[in-house]
Design brief:
binds dioxo(di-mu-sulfide)dimolybdenum; alpha+beta; HMA domain-containing protein; 4-stranded antiparallel β-sheet
Length: 72
């Protein structure tokens, strides 16, 4: 089944930042949905745990240039 994870994302200062995080999330094989809140410094991600791990999602956000911490 699918899993959800909430990730704290820091370093986003504008809507283009949150859009690029969202693009990075949606570019990961195994991520079905990714919505990023600039104001709440959060990303909600729906993913297939058979294809991708929470840690990989965190690393993809960091590769996009932001700090990320898995919350749940
Ligand atoms: Mo504009 Mo957001 O450079 O980094 S995309 S502040």
């Amino acid at each position: 089944g699918m899993k959800k994870v909430q990730i704290k994302v820091t370093g986003m200062t504008c809507a283009a930042c949150s859009n690029s995080v969202e693009g990075a999330l949606l570019g990961i094989k195994g991520v079905l949905k990714g919505s990023v809140s600039l104001l709440q410094n959060k990303a909600d991600v729906l993913f297939d745990p058979e294809l991708v791990k929470e840690e990989d999602i965190k690393l993809a956000i960091e590769d996009a240039g932001f700090d990320a911490e898995v919350l749940s």
